[in-house]
Design goal:
two-stranded antiparallel sheet, 2 strands, 9 helices, single chain, mainly alpha, 343 residues, 62% helix
């Protein structure tokens, strides 16, 4: 039977070990949906309050919530696209799409949330305008705090459970997790709660002193907060996009597992790289028990690797031996050749 370029299955129709399969990621999806609903409701309420009161801090908070709402859409797209199955064109799967779309969300938070808040705060400093009906602002901020708190608790519960399984503290796990949607929701909800407190202080100081300067300062402070969160999220996504290797704890766990296998005598090379949320790809060189012409095969593979690395543009290569059942690959555009029979 002739093989085709799209054949990526091994014997019995099972996926080849060289093809990455992503996880379902259902809990992260639910977390993003909760955050989207909370942010959408809060954004509408804050916008109405900002229009009625004329408060700069309330306007900054409204922009903040609209930016977060838009970001949740990016995160939902990230979750959906990153879970598409692997194929011939993407043998490592589409997991890294999660970092691309999460990067868009982080940049949007900076450009829209931080940019508008800071610019409006500066304009308010130059041309201060008194706010009114501040009781509405307090009521909306209180409701927003509750709704954002519900979303934050949902995200923290997921993060805490994962952190416990990974034997890390909560903050460390949020910063280091390979799931960008979870990190984004936790960071944005935390920033939303802090932003509400800043807006409350700014509105209250405005009411007590009668000076709109405090309200403007509150708007600028919210913008700076969003900028900091955005930079952190962008940096984390950048690191995973360019190839984040597994942490030392993960490497040690994988290495211990390999060395416990009867089929492995020693490990001479181990590469662990994240290719998506909770998805890693392994490249391993092992020494098998006994000889069985292993030394000759190992030296031939090493020579192939050295020849490949000697080519321009090849940063590294690890050659392994194929099993007889694996389908042969052929150059595209050439007549296909019958797969060699199993030996």
């Amino acid at each position: 039977m002739a093989s085709t370029p799209d054949q990526l299955s091994g014997p019995d129709g099972q996926s080849s070990a060289r093809v990455v399969s992503g996880d379902a990621g259902g809990e992260s999806t639910a977390t993003v949906v909760v955050a989207f609903v909370a942010n959408a409701v809060v954004a509408v309420a804050k916008t109405g309050a900002a229009m009625i009161t004329g408060s700069a801090s309330m306007l900054a908070e409204a922009v903040h919530s609209w930016a977060d709402t838009g970001n949740e859409v990016f995160l939902l797209i990230a979750d959906r696209r990153s879970r598409r199955p692997a194929g011939h064109d993407h043998p490592l799967g589409h997991g890294r799409e999660a970092y691309v779309w999460s990067m868009f969300a982080a940049i949007g938070l900076f450009a829209v949330g931080a940019g508008v808040s800071v610019v409006h705060g500066i304009q308010e400093l130059v041309h201060p305008e008194p706010a009114e009906n501040l009781g509405i602002a307090y009521a909306v901020l209180a409701i927003a705090f509750v709704l954002e708190g519900v979303s934050f608790v949902k995200a923290v519960r997921q993060a805490r459970g994962e952190a416990r399984r990974s034997e890390r503290d909560l903050v460390e796990h949020v910063l280091e997790t390979s799931d960008p949607t979870l990190r984004a929701v936790v960071a944005e909800d935390a920033a939303a709660l802090v932003g509400i407190v800043i807006a409350f202080v700014g509105v209250l100081a405005h009411q007590i002193t009668g000076s709109a300067v405090w309200d403007a300062v509150g708007s600028i402070a919210i913008g700076v907060l969003l900028a900091v969160v955005s930079v952190v999220l962008v940096d984390r996504n950048r690191r995973f996009l360019v190839g984040e290797v597994g942490r030392p704890e993960l490497r040690d766990a994988v290495l211990r597992h390999l060395l416990e296998l009867d089929e492995v005598e020693r490990v001479t090379y181990l590469r662990i790289e994240y290719v998506g949320p909770r998805s890693i790809y392994l490249v391993v060189s092992v020494d098998l028990p006994g000889e069985d012409r292993e030394t000759a095969v190992a030296r031939r593979l090493d020579a192939l690797e050295r020849r490949a690395i000697g080519q321009p543009g090849v940063a590294g290569a690890v050659f392994t031996v194929s099993t007889p059942e694996e389908p042969s690959l052929h150059p595209l555009g050439r007549p296909e050749v019958e797969t060699a029979p199993a030996r």
